[in-house]
Every structure is written in C-alpha cells, then in structure tokens.
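Fold Annotation — chain and its backbone

Fields — amino acid sequence, structure tokens

___
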Amino acid sequence: MAQEDLFKKIISHCKEYGFVFPSSEIYDGLGAVYDYGQYGVELKNNIRKYWWDSMTLLNENVVGIDSAIFMHPTIWKASGHVDAFNDPLIDNKDSKKRYRADVLIEEHLARIDDKINKEIEKAARRFGDAFDPEQFRSTNPRVQEYQMKRDATHARFVKALNEADLDELRQIIIDAEIVCPLSGTRNWTEVRQFNLMFATDMGSTADGAMKIYLRPETAQGIFVNFLNVQKSGRMKIPFGIAQTGKAFRNEIVARQFIFRMREFEQMEMQFFVRPGEEIEWFNHWKATRLAWHKALGLGDRYRFHDHDKLAHYANAATDIEFEMPFGFKEVEGIHSRTDFDLNQHEKYSGKKMQYFDPEQGQSYTPYVIETSIGLDRVFLSIIAGSYTEEILDGGETRTLLKLPPALAPVKLAILPLVKKDGLPEKAEEILHALRFDFRCQYDEKDSIGKRYRRQDAIGTPYCITVDHDTLNDNSVTIRFRDTMCQERAPIARLGEIIAEKVSMKTLLKKIND
C-alpha cells in the first residue's frame, strides 16, 4: 500500500471509530484544529499517564507542576520568543500556497537519501550475501554523485540556517530546482520570517489592556518556578521538574493531520544540573527517552536526528524521530539548554535565580537538560505504528489497532454469545465486577464475529465471551486481539489475568530493561 494511501486510511479510521474529529466540523471546520473523540481522549490520557509516571515514579528527583497558560509578557521577551520565535516562510506565486523554506530543503535532502538507499537496495538484491554496502556506497559512481550533491546542499543549508541568511535559503531552493508540490512550478517569492505566537489582550478596557501571549511552550512556566519548587521541595541538584499542558503556535504551514497543529499538548521535563555535567546528563536522557518510546513495542521505527542548527540557548540538541507514513518526523526533542533561561529571567526580573550547592559551598546558575515531547505527535505515531490490515482465510480483511494493552482506550470487551438464555445478565454481572479496575465495554449487538471486528478496530486487547457453558462452569473464553487465539478461564480469575496484561507497570519496567 502506498504510504499516502495508508495515511488517508489512518485519518479516516480515526474519525470513523471515535479517535479524532475535525474541530467545528458542522461549520466546515477550523484549519489545523482537532477534537479528540471518546476513544481518542482515553488513549491520550493513557499516553500522558505513561509519560508522567515514567518521570515522577521512576525518578525520585523529578517532581511535577502545572503552571498557568497566561504568563507575564516579559517572560516571552526574556526567553527570546518575542524577537526570535520565527519560521522562514516562502510562497509559490502560482499555487498561492505557503511553505517553510527549511522544510522544503530538508525534504529535498531526504529525497536524495532515498535515491541513494534505493541504489544500495537494488545492488544488495543483485549481489546477495557477498554484498558490501559501505564499499558500494564509496565506489559506485551514481551513489557518489548523489552523495556529493547532498553534501554540498546540506553544507549550504546549515550555513544559511546558522547565519539566518534568508536570501541564501531561497537561492538553495532555486539551485536545487525544488518545485511546489501543488503547482509543480519554481515561481517562488522571497523568504521572510513569521512570528508564531498568538497575542491577546488582558484587561477590562482597551486603554488599560495588557498585551499578553498564549504560551508557545510549557518550559518557561517551569523556569520561572524553579526556585519555588527547589525551596518548597528542598530539592538538591540534580533534579527535574515535569509538566504537561496546552501550548499554542500560529502555524502558517499546518498540515499532516494532528502532526502540526495550532493548539497542541506538550509533555516537558527540565532537568537542572551542575555546570560542566550537562553533556553527561544529555546523553543519559537521550538513552532514557528512546527506551521510553521503544517500550511501546512499535518496532525499529525510531532514530536520532542531531540538529543542523542549534537554538540560541543550546549547546547540544537531538530529536527522536518516528517513521510516520509521510517519512521520519520528530516526536521528541532533547536539548542541553545551558544556563540561558535562568540567566535571562534573572536579568529581566531582577530576581536572583541561582542555587546554593551545599556540597560545593557556592552558588551558581544551574544548567538545564530538556526533554520535550509532543503528546499529539506521540498519539499519531502510536496510531500509525499500530494500524494493521490482515487478510484472513477466505479473503476477508481484518483492520485492527495493535495498541499496547496498557494504553488501549478499552481494556476489555464483555460479549454475551446470544441475547437470551440468561447470557446478557451473566455478562453484565461480570461487567459490574470488573469496571472498577478496567475500562470495560459491553456489546450484544450483531454476530459475535462482527463484535470482535469492532473491538479490533478500536484496539481492545481482550474480549470475554459469555456462552452457555459459562452458566454451568463459571468460566469464559478470553479472545486475544493480535492473534485471535482463544482460551478458557474462570470468572474468578479474570481480574488477576487482565490486570497483569494491561498494567502500566509492564511498560514502565521495559524502560529500565
């Protein structure tokens, strides 16, 4: 299946089965804004809990806060967002569509990489086990030509980004003959910067109103509360502060479903360390965060991508990327932010933002390691990684979401085989006993096969079938989503059996394995 077709199916599946809806749909929608449906909100809540518990339960020195969305506007001046939170945008004069110039170039480089990989794959099939990919890469004329073009373009791109040279970004697009995906032309405007923050007014009158911003990230709420948390919690360096919450960015080039939205949710942790120890902790959190993602069991679809251009506050930065249907894309960033943020807030507020280290007997401004993850992007990666179509015996197609059981919106479906003979009553009795421990669903409509398919489509890992034998032996059939295998189990043990399979502990323990 073509990746574009797969992505369309995933989007359609999310709407049909109550995961994600276009916001304000009866009014023709609102661009790049989405609502989470009845199953989507459960999955989202479970992802958030998995992240929160991995931070605050597995790390004794990480605590959480919940800061306000509205903050003093000087905070965003201090952080650099007022002056530097921009995207380089370019328009195609024929299609009238706007694009991020840096993304156009990155996608061009990715296409060259794909050409190189295809040449290597073709050669591997031709030469078999004796094939040496590195030797082929370094000696094949066509691959070398591709690589030279890529390296030259990449070097220009990195230089232009670091120097904020908008004219050079446009020239790279022209020289690389990058075309508009819609018009197919290269009729480009100049590149210009666009600030992404939403502004609004706070106050009862126009004259007395204060211009404030909807926060574009949750990190600054952590930094301005650094000393509050440290002193009230008697925290010692190193320690972290975690937070989840909404953020807002006026994305002009919003696309790819919930991957890039104007209203989204972040899960961020700022880890405060001694100066000079930041790279060691940066590497620690890189490994820990990748383990968090891989514990989900979505396969070898993750990779690190080091930044070509470091943010003004960073001395090291990398992204964890997931292979979406539209290519490898960032789902989490790990950054070494140095002491920039605390120093800036000390400068603009006039309040001292230093930590007294009793072991060293001196005060200093801590350095910070940040892990910043987009909850909506992780949601999309999990849906994309779990979406499966299987051809069964007889030619029927089964569509299912192979969600990690601990994250599944519904953990257990309880299904009476027929709607008579006391089976519905027995099934509801089981439902009432288990619903205090798990999110369960009762379903008696249609054939048992159709009910299984509905549960497969929403990712329910286990179905319980109540049949006539149940009335005699107090046992039920457990049906497993991924394999469709079935086994008999006593009703008295259902809570124990299901709890072991869907517990969040199963994911958390994998992180440290």
Notes: The chain is about 40% helix and 25% strand.
